[in-house]
Amino acid sequence: MFQTINSFKDLIDAIWGVLISIGLNDIFDIIILSFIIYHAFKLIRETRALQLVQGILLLLVCYLLSIFFELQTIRFLLKTCFSWGILVIAILFQPELRRIIEKIGRAKISDFISSDNSDAEEVWSGAIASICEAAQNLSATCTGALIICERKTRLGEQIDTGTILDCLPSAAVFGNIFYPNTPLHDGAVIMRDGKILAAGCFLPKPQKEELIAKQLGSRHRAAIGMSENSDAVVIVVSEETGTISVAENGELTRGYSKESLAKLLRARLIPETHTDNGSGNFAGRVMSRWKK
């Protein structure tokens, strides 16, 4: 019993010794590291990179277990794997790493500290209502459509391939643009700051087109390709089935209604304090996910 008490006292003394040795620079170091880890997780949580992190953590657990149980062969293999891991990650996850670096480059100090939502609310509220009404109408008539909501990544290259309209959105305008056999119906509409900036725009192909489900048509593939190369939210209406889909971060979710699409767009285009906290999760629960 006395030995247990002494061991507990030694543990307390060791912890206290560590605490009193912490200086002001150590506190700043911990705060900065926590800040970086938090925002790194926010960047990867909606990409395949999150699955990569989970896999790495699992391998680390296996490595620790191999050390504890003295499994020399497994330990050697995992150690070799980790030594080449960075190079393999850079090759296999080049698109995801590029998007993460682009997001870091687009970020501003104000994005991390605070955000002014009033402008976004004013700019996008009416536009979201028009997009959702148009999507519902186009879906009912199985009229194909492709609408891109630009966010921080500027889409100048794609805008240059289309026709500049610079007009306020409405269900009637979208209906006229995507009406079959009109000059602009085959391309994409690009919206900036709640306005229709251009129509008839051509989009980049997806980077790994062979991994996309074969039943998806050219509009869906173009939407995935656009979402791989930017942070835009891309809305697609299928010409064959009338299904409403949304592409983000190289992934396609399907089966939206007017209401669920509105919730998703508000969550993505208007800062979180002006949206329902559960809207993003709602979309994830009710949609079937089509990954690359």
Describe the fold and architecture.
By secondary structure, this protein is of the alpha+beta class. It contains twelve helices and eight strands. The protein has two domains: 112 residues, no CATH class; 173 residues, DNA integrity scanning protein, DisA, N-terminal domain (YojJ-like (1, 3-Layer(aba) Sandwich), CATH 3.40.1700.10. The chain has an eight-stranded mixed beta sheet, with helices on both faces. The C terminus is likely disordered.
> Based on helices, strands and strand pairing, what is the structural class?
alpha+beta
**SSE pattern:** HHHHHHHEHEHEEHEEEHHE
Q: How many β-strand stretches?
A: 8
The CATH topology of the largest domain comes to YojJ-like (1
CATH superfamily of the largest domain: DNA integrity scanning protein, DisA, N-terminal domain
Query: What is the CATH-assigned architecture of the largest domain?
Result: 3-Layer(aba) Sandwich
Please state roughly what percent of the residues sit in beta strands, choosing from under 5%, 5-15%, 15-25%, 25-35%, 35-45% or over 45%.
5-15%
CATH class of the largest domain: Alpha Beta
Mean pLDDT across all amino acids:
80
Helical residue percent band: 55-70%
How many domains, as an integer?
A: 2
How would you write the strand order of the largest sheet? 2-4-3-1-5-6-7-8
